[in-house]
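Dear colleague,

Thank you for sharing your sequence with our group. We've completed the structure prediction you requested, and as agreed, I am returning the results in plain text so they can be pasted directly into your records. Please verify that the sequence below matches your submission; if there's any discrepancy, let me know and we will rerun it promptly.
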Amino acid sequence: MAQLTMIQAITDALAIELANDPNVLIFGEDVGKNGGVFRATQGLQEKFGEDRVFDTPLAESGIGGLAFGLALEGFRPVAEIQFFGFVFEVMDTVVAQAARTRYRMAGTRNLPIVFRSPFGGGVHTPELHSDNLEGLMAQSPGLKVVIPSNPYDAKGLLISAIRDNDPVVFLEHMKLYRSFRDEVPEEAYTVPIGKAAITKEGSDVSVITYGAMVREAIKAAETLEKEGISVEVIDLRTVAPLDVETIIASVQKTGRVVVVQEAQRQAGVGAMVMSEISERAVLSLDAPIGRVAAPDTVFPFGQAENIWLPNATDIENKVRETYHF
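Please find the predicted structure tokens below.
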């Protein structure tokens, strides 16, 4: 196995699928010779040619339209939206067209598009670059929404997404790109879409989260262990569809739960997780469901980011409150 960062694991997955299937195409702003703003596609144009990996104009709406048309003609486009805050420019293609094509065509056509995009806070980007907009995607039936938290999952989930016959929104948290390394097999492998992972087993409180907050939850769990509080950490990995079975099994095991998301508190993935628990496992709860999320404001400028973003300390405090209820 190789020790890879998440960005390296993503590049590896893209290279494997380009070699595996001639119908896989990668395109977006600066993804060719430059290798993308974060170098996720570095070296791929040189290896596979300009017909397989190529730049587009600075127009997300055009990128989406191209992906939609190519998918209908049998290709497997991997379209990069340079930052997910720019998704509004391509919302019609993603939500109004791609998400409902299978229904519209009575299941007779596939639409195997992957919309890759970086997102997330903690790296002090300019306005509109860090926004957590996964909730908008998760509430759109017909889309699968995947958010890996580590290099191993990133590679396996991206390969699964490219091979999937339905549109997948694949979101990559910028803070995780180069912050740590993980053991990643050199060969191709898949991680199933729609299946959560038990990142850490525990018996007292379940912490359910995804993306960069998984690492914050693990930090919190390690601190709480010293206080005698055993925390189970569930990494959703896919926020649409949710792995409700794993969520409920954990809640029934611990009897207490804290739901964590980096995104603003209102609506969002966390609220969906809480509602599923309330409907399916309320009698298993020994305390109210706890929630950790960002404030209901627009994403702040970089200098206020560290105050605004949830962190391990916030998770620790909420877990203590829930445990001692």
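Summary note from our side: The chain has a mean pLDDT of 97.

Kind regards,
the structure core
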